Amino acid sequence: MNGLKGKALISMSLAVTLSACDMAPKYVRPELPVPAASPEGPAYAAGEGQAAIVPADTAWRDFFVDPRLVRVIGTTLANNRDLRIALANVEQARAQFKVRRADILPTVGLNGSATYQEQPIVQFPDMAGVRNNTDVYNASVGISAWEIDLFGRVRNLTKAAQEQYFASIENRNAAQTALIAEVASAWMTMAADQERLRIARDLESAFGKTLELTKSRFAKGIASELEVRQAQTSYDQARADIAQATTLVAQDQNALNLLAGTTVGADDLPDAMPQGDVALDNLPGDLPSSLLLRRPDIAAAEHQLLAANANIGAARAAFFPRISLTAAFGTMSLGLSNLFKSGSDYWSVAPSASVPIFDFGRNQGNLRYARATYDAMLATYEKSVQTGFREVADALARRGTMTDQLAAQTSLRDSARVAYTLSEARFRAGIDSFLTTLDSQRALYAAEQGLLATRLARTANMIELYRAMGGGLK
Question: What is the pLDDT at residue 17?
Answer without folding.
Answer: 44
